[in-house]
Amino acid sequence: MMRRRALLALPALLPVTATAQGFPFMPDAEAVALLRAGGLNLYFRHGITDRSQVDTGRRGDRAGQRNLSEAGRVQARQLGEAFRTLGIPVTEVLSSEVFRARDTAELAFGADRVRIERDLIADDYTPGDALEDARAVSRRLAQPVTPGNRVMVGHIVPLGMILGRSLAQAEFPEGSAGVFRPLGTRWEHLGFVRAEQLIAAARG
Questions:
Q1: What is the pLDDT of residues 124-155, one digit of tens each?
Q2: CATH superfamily of 40-202
């Protein structure tokens, strides 16, 4: 049985370094069954990006941001198709305003379904307090959702703050999601699922 991590909705969010112990990737069948059942909060990292682009941290400036690569755009579209093929219900879609996250959400789930939430922004873009933003997102992870799932598209560093330590790229690769069960005043982290797991499951 996979070890679960139950944490308060307002964790200490102290800066820590990554350790050799990683968070688990959920088995394919378990992930699909849980997501189909609904009632979960899914924190997706944006899709695959073009690492040759310099990210200046300028809000609203696509040319000054690291954007999705063509592979990332394909990944996002295929992720949305996987949700539909697998019958995974989505109640609402929230996204960071940073273009790589917004594009991921819109390509996967449709632009008309996406609502921008300021606190999902990347830590190096925020004009305020990155820890306060992470706490706000953590509170949202604890909020119940029915009948489907709540999808949030954000960035790696804020989720590391929420989980209590920085995340390695291999632990939370671009396009993957942290799966959370909301418990009202706290949440339970069930593990991670890669976009490629869902895409492969949809293809049978």
A1: 886 778 999 999 999 999 999 999 999 999 99
A2: Phosphoglycerate mutase-like (3.40.50.1240)
| 56 vs 23: CA distance, rounded Å | 30
Instruction: Give kind and range of the element (H or E) at residue 195.
Output: helix 195-202
CA distances from 2 to 161, 189, 193, 194 (A): 22, 11, 13, 17
Residue 77: CA atoms inside 13 Å, Cβ hemisphere, count?
7
Whether omega before 158 lies within 30 degrees of 0, making that bond cis, reads no
User: pTM for this structure?
Assistant: 0.91
- pLDDT score for 135: 94
In this structure, are residues 105 and 92 in contact, taking their beta carbons and an 8 Å threshold? Answer: no
Q: What Å distances lie between residue 43 and 60, 64, 99, CA to CA?
A: 22, 25, 16
